[in-house]
Specification:
4 copies of one chain form a homotetramer. By secondary structure, chain A is α+β, with helices and mostly antiparallel strands. In chain A, β9 and β10 form a beta hairpin. Chain A has one domain: Chorismate synthase AroC (Chorismate synthase, AroC fold, 4-Layer Sandwich), CATH 3.60.150. In chain A, the strands form 5 sheets. Chain A has a 5-stranded antiparallel sheet, with helices on one face. Chain A starts with a strand and ends in a 6-residue tail after the last helix. In chain A, about 65% of the residues are buried. In chain A, α1 crosses α7. Chains A and B meet through β1, α2, α5, β12 and α6 of A and β1, α2, α5, β12 and α6 of B. β12 of chain C pairs antiparallel with β12 of chain D, so a sheet runs across the interface. Chains A, B, C, D: Pathway: Metabolic intermediate biosynthesis; chorismate biosynthesis; chorismate from D-erythrose 4-phosphate and phosphoenolpyruvate: step 7/7. Chains A, B, C, D: It catalyses: 5-O-(1-carboxyvinyl)-3-phosphoshikimate = chorismate + phosphate. Chains A, B, C, D: This reaction introduces a second double bond into the aromatic ring system. Chains A, B, C, D: Belongs to the chorismate synthase family.
Chain lengths: ~350, ~350, ~350, ~350
């Protein structure tokens, strides 16, 4: 109810603030008998963690996950999987300057008004640090899904946009550059741009595209819990996300039905895929693809006029180590959330027929 | 779990197929003591129903809601509100031609594969007829929310787009034309365009913009159940929706942080509102605004190549009375879903502090 | 949340007051492809309905269920099953005398204090009439469970107790007498006793025993959602229930571990069954059995001192047609609730292993 | 869904096995602004922990809870409260003898059949060690409830029963003896009896009575989530519980309505309290009282015939340090679960009226 759980059958609940002792979570409902590859989980964590390249924040978090339960001799037991990630780099002193100041476009003001109290250190619960827990759970969900392949990449940084359709892209290029844009030339331009933005003490937004392949037909539920509605919610729950579109998306609104309709082949596949792999809220076996919009990071290295908790004028200025552009590190988070949605519907679908 | 419920505290569960005896639902968790204005509920129903103007489907459904429980002497009692809407215009014979045919970009194929059985008459459960139940519940939610004002309107039809910001718009113009576009000139063009599209036997998509005003600060929950994430899910659960963006949305991705950040006034309001009234997933008191993308209606009045349930080639052709463009009738549905989200968070927020 | 839903996967939500237009419900999550036997559903309804024998209330309710959705050509479609039962015998005038009076040991006082408003006619939502909806859903759940056999019977009326263990009982005797006690002699005594109690204008309590046979191993979840915990909640949710015990129950508290432990046979079955078919919250394949305690009906045909809604002294006296003893009609309700619990865990168990 | 969560608004999710690295949990939905008294939480933990007296298990667990989030400067922030309790005394070697053996009346067999894998060390997840997490959450719930007073005590051990009504009891006597029976003489007899049972290598059951005082009117929900139904489920979810009754309970079944009905005083209180403080599922302001039946502990210090996982005959014999009677240590667990139920309904009730 209070917003810290995601999923119905495969359910993740997370806890933890940016600068508390630890963050962590519980994955409840993971089926028994899954052999976990801990190496892969760690790889996902490394993709998200700060300090991995020169264009992301230089904070140093080990982001080492410690599993406390639900796993026995390398396999899931069907019991809840509890885990913690210690906050090793929490320099609380860095944040005394924002104790009473509401940073523009952050959650400081709304948390204070809603709860009457907030842990101001590093943004507390509203910090994107929380997404590390999503990546842990997503990495397990991915292993549960086996053949289903979930791939995300950066499709734009500011106005620099990769115009290619996902089907023209070689996914193995994604991790070859720090931007995670699967086009070497564009990636290089984006990287330069992010660096120049950082020099200005500013930040910039971007988009992440995600593709889900080898999806079994029948995932998703009618009416309110349509597959794309849950994917949308999952993506919009990620910090800094402002929009979501799947299949033809906003561009589909200017098409005619005669152009937009996906004509069937005799095997049930479709000639085009404006539907984005989902019809009536349920997967049809075609590739699912969607795009997620991220706003520019709110913390900038410049002085901004603002107010304090008493309504007096104040100044805010980012200190320390922040991301000039969030999308490169958002890629594994988008994948993780997609995996959580798919795992949940995959399990739920086992109950849909006699 | 099976996707027919929406909301946590103020919870709507719906049932019913397009051509069964009736559709209906249960609203559970509506607080006791709310005096209901049935006239207003009926007005909302009339805004959604077929046959209201020359540019929408000419099907004739009375769409008269019958309340069966939870209301006593005009007030809610805190008990579940059961209601039914009879299907008076269900001409099942109209649909025998699609019994074994999968219509392109409809849910026929996915329902059949997922469930092994489907009520093919009029699309069964996947028909947008189900949204009438959402409008009933939304009309009650609106009354619960009192001062919060929820207004939606058509912001584009195909490539015809109302470029004005919502703040420049006179909302009282919305219902003055059948398109529900609050600009007489643009509305007239859109109307002509929809008529020409219909003549071609084709359909077209569009967008609906929604604005929520007088929102108390503090609605929404952190992390997974952010206010905009639930709004996004709510909108994406409406038939034919392909995308959702709030505040600066996709356009915000090309902005810099120094432009995008909303600077506070001393009273806690903000000078700009790229945040769309939500920061960290929680309402900040500014106007909430978002845009919803609708694809062109899949049923077109032209022959389309398709397959039947045995994988043989077949033909599909829309018969009867269908909407050439869904957005005018989608306006009250968007408002209804927004009201359900707001009512739910409004009630939940009562539990957030000691 | 507001207490009108039961179950997680196979989920029943009910609505309706005793004297409104109708009661009804929605069953969401029933798997597709189940051929329904409507005759059997009707039989269950007849077992619960008033007026079926001389020892129960002589109210006349047809209790005819009308299914509105989720069923196509006799089979479930996986869509929500909406249903209504009209209130044909609601004589509202009968209840004007209790409009402002709080009947002792009824819900009048607590509803008024909690909600500030109540539908006083016939007890409104707190009336046991609501259980008719449970019987509808339970009858479908029973059909879903196929081989699992759920049998309840009256094991005591007041101090008259059937001392036999369930294993000594011929279940086919249960429906042969109006008390539903499967021992002709004891049933006859109970019947006479109930009649004498009724003559006194009084009421009496009793117990119902329920046995669930042919249970697959593995139903139930660890920790909070133990199979017996959900069965207990289900039973305690029935009007007038004051206690629940399963397996050895309260009698087991005076036993020693060496007597109480159920020793395994080599096939995994157990020599004794003090565990009542459940170990660690999960079914072990042995018979599940439990007992449910019902208090005497609160409505008696005698004058009782009480208060009105203003705190003034008043008198309450049952009028019309009430049950002198609730247990005979409770038998099908106990079975229905047991079926709902079992169906829910049966479906959930499909997700417990890879 | 998988049974590791309890509560709707004030929600506890737990994880952890008896012999893993740690157990722990997340409390989600605790309102912001509650000043926590950590001393009191620790006191509750000490009441439950092993080794506290000569009549309970002599295992040594520190049971020191470490809070990781959701608390800032001593107050709850409205964010999820994550906590861990390390397993300091897990001697895994002690359990190799039960690796392949199914102990009678334990969960070994059912877990193995349901999940195909189990952590056999110390009973794994089915161990009562998990209840330490409930006590943590219950101690916080108690603080939230402020004036509501929850008191449990041992009312019987085997056939030794404290016949007094709770109203005749001096609650301050409860903690003065290791049995937690608030009658010095009876407590002494019970203690001797437990010691003699232990000498025999055997175990014995008992009952715990719980009283909830100063309850606001209006807690609980109609129909399925009646206050007593949730209390019943809460109690039945505790390891070794076989039965639950509230108010008049099973004894109420032999009463007549004219005796059982609770007559109102003019202030709305009642002259008698057979209803146990709950009418129609909702608290009426009178004391809530209920009794919980615990079976004898399954682990006995004697050889028992049993089978192994291959269906071969085997022997089981308790080793190490086990409770000869569970009820003294169950007292704080019963209170904790009662507190969780009350806190949940207390918060939910804030949404029941306009």
């Amino acid at each position: 109810m209070a917003g810290n759980s995601f999923g119905k059958i495969f359910k993740l609940t997370t806890f933890g603030e940016s600068h508390g002792a630890a963050i962590g979570g519980i994955i409840d409902g993971c089926p028994a008998g899954l052999s976990l590859d801990f190496e892969t989980i760690n790889t996902e964590m490394q993709r998200r963690k700060p300090g991995q390249s020169s264009i992301v924040t230089q904070r140093k978090e080990e982001d080492k996950v410690k599993f406390l339960s639900g796993i026995f001799e390398g396999k899931t037991t069907g019991m809840p999987i509890g885990f913690v990630i210690e906050n090793t780099d929490h320099k609380s002193q860095d944040y005394s300057h924002i104790k009473d100041v509401y940073r523009p476009s952050h959650a400081d003001y709304t948390y204070d008004k809603k709860y009457g109290i907030r842990d101001y250190r590093g943004g507390g619960r509203s910090s994107a640090r929380e997404t590390a827990c999503r990546v842990v759970a997503g990495a397990i969900a991915k292993q549960l899904l086996q053949n289903i392949k979930i791939t995300a990449y950066v499709s734009s940084v500011g106005e620099m946009e990769l115009k290619k359709n996902y089907s023209e892209i070689n996914f193995s290029e994604i991790e070859k550059n720090p931007v995670r844009c699967p086009d070497a030339e564009m990636a290089s331009k984006m990287e330069d741009y992010i660096k120049s933005i950082r020099k200005e003490g500013d930040t910039v937004g971007g988009t992440v595209t995600c593709v889900i392949q080898n999806v079994p037909i029948g995932l998703g539920e009618p009416v309110f819990d349509k597959l794309h509605a849950e994917l949308g919610k999952a993506m919009l729950s990620i910090n800094a996300v402002k929009g979501f579109e799947y299949g033809s998306g906003f561009a589909g609104t200017v098409m005619k039905g005669s152009e937009h309709n996906d004509i069937f082949n005799e095997d049930g596949s479709t000639k085009s895929n404006h539907s984005g792999g989902i019809q009536g809220g349920i997967s049809n076996g075609e590739d699912i693809y969607f795009k997620v919009a991220f706003k520019p990071v709110a913390t900038i290295m410049r002085k901004q006029e603002t107010i304090d908790s008493k309504g007096n004028k104040a100044e805010a200025e980012g200190k320390g180590r922040h991301d000039p552009c969030v999308v490169p590190r958002a890629v594994p988070i988008v994948e993780a959330m997609a995996a959580l949605v798919m795992a949940d519907f995959y399990l739920l679908n086992k109950t849909s027929r006699l």
